[in-house]
Amino acid sequence: MRAFIFPGQGSQSVGMGKALAEASPVARALFEEVDDALGQNLARLMAEGPQEELTLTENAQPAIMANAVATLRVLEQEAGLKLADRADFVAGHSLGEYSALCAVGAFDVATTARLLKLRGQAMQAAVPVGEGAMAALLGANLEVAQAVADAAAQGEVCTVANDNDPTQVVISGHKGAVERALDIAKEKGAKRAILLPVSAPFHCPLMQPAADAMDEALGKADIRPPVVPVYANVTAAPADDPAEIRRLLVEQVTGMVRWRESVAAMFEGGVTHFVEFGGKVLGPMVKRIAPDATVTSVVTMDDIEALTKEI
Questions:
Q1: Distance between the two ends of the chain, CA-based, in angstroms?
Q2: Fewer CB atoms near the end CB (10 Å): N or C, the chain?
Q3: Contact 157, 204 (CB under 8 A)
Q4: Fold of 132-198
Q5: Distance between CA 114 and CA 38 in Å, rounded?
Q6: DSSP per residue, 68-109
């Protein structure tokens, strides 16, 4: 069995999608579709930067989606390999869940781009700059990270945001609480605890205003049944009902990304091959969760050609 997976924020870089667009009219058409939906030249920002503008949450989120979905579109339309025939499940990390839903036809491309633009704006606006923070706890599992967050909260918000793999968990919340967690993490056995260069504390209760905004937007969006089930971040279980997908996407804004559990559940359910589209971020996590799984990252035309021979 095979799963197609899609990366989240942090995988953006200047130059992303440029070579693919130059080599493939299918990719160019996808980037143009996203540009038209957003009313901005996102493709040029992806290709040329500047990095600080691309990294803005409202730009990074649709850019990462566009890059990943363009890669898949080239595989489907130029190589003739349809996702529905080649994948048993899809999943995405945080915003990557939207890419996954677009890939399986639950959202069209224009809707996905607009939802992610709004999601980025709403997440940024939810907490004033400087009031929130996130930190990665390396060499710490979920149990250790939860204990660190609980000890650091002291009346403020400090929760586990991303359970990425057995050695990497991210916490999120008020800046003071997250800074306290850095010292507490070392006391509780984490190898390293580092503040992340993010502009807002994602996936924690402070994001409730963004969740409310997405609830309204998703309530108006057309969500169709996906052609294969999508593993949801907040349940680490497959979903294929449009109403359930809508509800889970709203919960995802404030909820923990259960990536470790999602990959483990897919592997235990028979998935032996994970294919990451548009990045090389998730592959190493997958190998730490399921060492016996096969992982393929697909970013370039050469990667696409190699994948056609694998699957």
A1: 11
A2: N
A3: yes
A4: Alpha-Beta Plaits (3.30.70)
A5: 6
A6: HHHHHHHHHHHS---HHHH-SEEEESTTHHHHHHHHTTSS-H
Q: Which of 71, 46, 11 lies closest to 301 in space, CA to CA?
A: 71
- Contact assessment for residue 137 and residue 148, using Cβ atoms and an 8 Å cutoff: yes
CB 130 within 8 A of CB 175: yes
Per the listing, tokens 């025939």 go with 85
Q: Residue 173 carries which DSSP code? A: E
Q: What region, left, alpha or beta, does residue 155 occupy, with left being phi > 0 and alpha being psi -120 to 50 degrees?
A: left
- Residue 80 backbone class (left: φ over 0; alpha: ψ -120 to 50; beta: rest): left
Report CA 177 to chain centroid distance, whole Å.
25
Give the separation between CA 285 and CA 239, rounded to whole angstroms. 22
Instruction: Give domain limits for the chain.
Output: 2-126+206-310, 132-198
| 60: number of Cβ within 10 Å | 23
Q: Per 3-state DSSP, what percentage of the chain is helix, strand, and coil (rounded to 5)?
A: 55, 15, 30
For the whole prediction, is pTM greater than 0.85? yes
3-state DSSP assignment of residue 309: helix
pLDDT along the chain (311 residues), means of 10: 95 93 97 98 97 93 98 95 96 98 98 98 94 97 98 98 98 98 96 92 98 98 98 98 98 98 98 97 98 97 93 87
194 near 135, Cβ under 8 Å?
yes
Buried b (16+ CB within 10 A) or exposed e, 229-240: bbbbbbbbebbe
Is-contact 119 61, C-beta < 8 A? yes
Dihedral over alpha carbons 114, 117, 123, 129 (to 10 degrees): -160
Is the distance from CB of 254 to CB of 201 less than 8 angstroms? no
Q: What superfamily does domain 2-126+206-310 belong to in CATH?
A: Malonyl-Coenzyme A Acyl Carrier Protein, domain 2 (3.40.366.10)
Q: Are strands 294-298 and 273-277 parallel, antiparallel or unpaired?
A: parallel
